[in-house]
């Protein structure tokens, strides 16, 4: 009986280690629909974090992007994978005023850096009069 108990304990330890390994290998993706004229046609985004494979993360990110309610159909129709990542943070920043062009995203192991990258890209696309209007709208970290 002690042998069976130790075998069961070993199986449980292996199973929990396998679960932990999957979590450490978690994958993530960002999909965006970004028309040439964001001011008129909007912007769509979808993300997925902590998925067991890159393919699963991409599928979910695309589905969320195509279903992004705040974007016109023209933007949702353009959804494609922008970046895949793992054990990293994603930030998306945008100018919240309708009809503006500011949008950007960043991926970095450090959450604050991801936000800074997103804000910089948003400011670069927003034009001189709207640079300060950018706000971080989405932050998601994978594998944490």
Give a short summary of the structure.
This protein has 144 residues and is an alpha+beta fold.
Secondary-structure blueprint of this entry?
Elements: H1 2-24, E1 27-33, H2 38-41, E2 44-51, H3 54-66, H4 73-76, E3 80-85, E4 89-94, E5 103-108, H5 111-126, E6 135-141
Antiparallel strand pairs: 1-2, 1-3, 4-5, 4-6
List the strand order in the largest sheet.
2-1-3
Outline the biggest β-sheet: 3 strands, antiparallel
Report the uncertain regions.
Answer: 1-24
Helix content: 40-55%
Overall morphology? flat
**Can you write the helix and strand succession as a string?**
HEHEHHEEEHE
Task: Say how many strands there are.
Answer: 6
- What is Rg? 20 Å
Distance between the first and last residues' Cα: 39 Å
Percent strand: 25-35%
Average pLDDT number: 84
Q: Determine the number of helices (DSSP H or I, runs of at least 4 residues).
A: 5
Search tags:
single chain; 144 residues; alpha+beta; 3-stranded antiparallel β-sheet; 5 helices; 6 strands; 42% helix
Structure, described:
The chain has 144 residues and is of the alpha+beta class. The chain is 42% helix and 28% strand. It has helices spanning 2-24, 38-41, 54-66, 73-76, 111-126, and strands at residues 27-33, 44-51, 80-85, 89-94, 103-108, 135-141. A three-stranded antiparallel beta sheet has the order 2-1-3. Strands 5-4-6 form a three-stranded antiparallel beta sheet. The chain is flat.
């Amino acid at each position: 009986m002690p042998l069976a108990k130790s075998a069961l304990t070993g199986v449980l330890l292996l199973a929990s280690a396998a679960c932990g390994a999957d979590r450490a290998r978690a994958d993530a993706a960002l999909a965006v629909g970004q028309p040439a004229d964001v001011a008129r046609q909007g912007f769509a985004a979808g993300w997925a974090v902590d998925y067991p494979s890159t393919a699963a993360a991409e599928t979910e990110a695309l589905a969320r992007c195509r279903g992004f309610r705040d974007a016109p159909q023209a933007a949702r129709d353009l959804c494609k994978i922008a970046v895949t990542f793992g054990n990293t943070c994603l930030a998306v920043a945008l100018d919240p005023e309708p009809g503006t062009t500011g949008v950007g995203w960043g991926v970095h192991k450090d959450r604050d850096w991801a936000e800074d990258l997103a804000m910089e890209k948003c400011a670069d696309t927003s034009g001189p009069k709207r640079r300060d209007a950018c706000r971080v709208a989405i932050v998601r970290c994978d594998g944490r």
